[in-house]
Protein 1
Amino acid sequence: MKRFVTAMVKHETNTFSPVPTPLTAFGRYGAQAGPAYGAAAIAAYRGTATAAGAFIDLAEEAGAAFAFPIAANATPGGCPEDSLIDHAAERILEEVNRGCDALFLDLHGGMATPGYDDPEGELLARIRKAAPGLPIAVAFDFHTNLSQRTIDNATVITAYRTYPHVDQYETGARAGRTLLRALAGEVEPKILWHSLPILSHLNCQTPSRQPMKDIMDRAIAAEADGTVLNASVLGCFPLADIPYVGMHGIVVVDARTDRGQGGRLLHDLMSMAWERRSDFVFHVEPVETSIAHARTLGDGPILLADHGDVAGSGGSTDVMAVLEECIRQGLDEMCVGPIWDPVAVDRMIAAGVGAPVDLEVGGRTDAPAIGHVGKPLRLSGTVRRITDGRFKVTGPMGTGTSQNLGRCAVLDTGWAEIVVCSERHEPFDTGCFTHAGIDPARKRYILIKSRQHFRAGFAPIIRHVVMVSGPGITTSDYSQYPWDRVRRPIYPLDPDTPSNLPPSF
Ligand SMILES: [Zn+2]
């Protein structure tokens, strides 16, 4: 009987973010603080639309025994500690050393720690050193930043090909099935990759629209028709001041049969991206212009996506500037949130449901990297509801996973119902409102802090989307970031960046 090991170590690190990411921040899908281990990890991810969920299913399908030594997943933020990698490597190797025929890793790929610009490469290198012949499949996020060391120490790599990430399960299954074919002696995987010097904007990356759509469609077709074993294009996570940012292509070929088609595909994918590089730049407009535009739109719901302060990219989600502008322009029939402010939550819980309150909300976090100073917003209203902040995702992204916003309180100002939470959360599923008794489909305006993931859960209920370039540590105005260690030249920071296209075969 074969024995497989599965593990999850995921963090998207915004190196500019002031939000700390201690080990206890990992494990947001579980009930406890910190990562989940063993049976608790299996219970948290079995049956979920995640790569780990796919790995569990593949092990069971193959009739293999399997272990899940660690599931660590934290909301994006500032750098985790180096010790996270020590801890994860120790747990994984403990199981690998008990006997392991194949390792299946659910990684984000966009992590950076003080000591490692490529913590995933460090983790893989340690595993490879301890178990040199071990076949390793890796499922990455679409927002991975890649190093040569990562490539050198994996057998198969796939990445999400959607954003919002609704193909997490499929990504795990793609990597896992190729590795199983390798175990059966059917194929001999070899990874080709390339990294373009493009710091693409998160708002312009999604494969569901151009400029990325044609490129990703090409990769999907080449994998589907068997030209290559796997093909992925990665948008990169740009808010990281490390040498490994850039748009990447990863093509896995069968070394026994590849006659250059993998290299040709990689060249074509990268050429398409390079030719379109100016379309990967998002142009910000003033907040007041975006809100004024929203007021001219017809029937609601009109979703206002404040993308300068997004938890899913490392934002504090307590910047109140966009809500302040909505008040100034007289918007009403709104639902808003979740705004991160555990202090305000405590105050509303102390006041109790039904109590009138007058309090400062948000603005508790400074972001020194961009000179942002937190500014709370004074609001008055009624405490409408108090919740434990827990719900299960029913939308298409991460379906079945448990979310935990910490204790929440709903402030009803008359013109808005505002969800205030104790744990940061990017709203990609309507559960963040509905669990608190708010139906966003019945509101005229939905103000949330998200740039793309909201489309997973909210698309079916909204009529219009207005992108709002609010201030914060996830701003799309790249001139605000103190770039220091990023590779140079890189487009668009250096408009005349020369291409580095891989050779055509
Ligand atoms: Zn991502």
Note: The chain has a mean pLDDT of 96.
Protein 2
Amino acid sequence: MSEEISTSNLIELISGRRTIHNYKEGLCPREKLIEAIDLARWAPNHHLTEPWHFYLLGDESVNAVIELNSEIVRASKGDEAATAKERRWRKMPGWFVMTCCRSDDPIRNQEDYAACCCAVQNLMLTLWNEDVGVKWSTGDVIRDKRFYDLLWIDQELETVVGLFWYGYAEEVPKMTRKPCLQITTELP
Ligand SMILES: Cc1cc2nc3c(=O)[nH]c(=O)nc-3n(C[C@H](O)[C@H](O)[C@H](O)COP(=O)(O)O)c2cc1C
């Protein structure tokens, strides 16, 4: 490494990153997202499949996704829940979708999904370092065929890894993790 990142900065970046649920008004510049995607693609990926693709949603696509989601929520939970969800989603500032290449080989599918998750973490940490928060969402809408259709994603070729929101945090939630010893087993 040419320039050293201090351990304390790295600890702060990794442990301080939080999923952001509530955002301030105002968009994070698209260039920051592009920079984060640029770094995301350096994630480890077996056989160098580079399985990820990013769809950056404009107003028209955002609107269509919100309407589809409301329809899905209305069908399962009723009008009130759908209206509340729509109001909430309309407050989300930046939107993008990440997909992973599909393969007939289940092992490759698993490894490609794993690589995509590594890329997401790269992306989230890059943005967090610029005070931009992200939320990774995997609600029902991302598995709906209509979601693929309205974003022009071919379901035969790609799987949606997540719908992501990004922007400046209104509040940063508190979060804990289990102690390291509890998740570690030393073997002889
Ligand atoms: C694969 C994946 C899917 C997720 N989907 C959702 C989701 O649908 N809704 C949500 O509120 N959070 C979702 N999250 C965010 C997690 O809830 C969040 O990472 C967890 O609560 C820990 O919080 P932190 O990211 O601030 O450490 C998802 C995270 C991952 C890794």
Note: The domain at 21-55+90-169 is CATH 3.40.109.10 (NADH Oxidase).
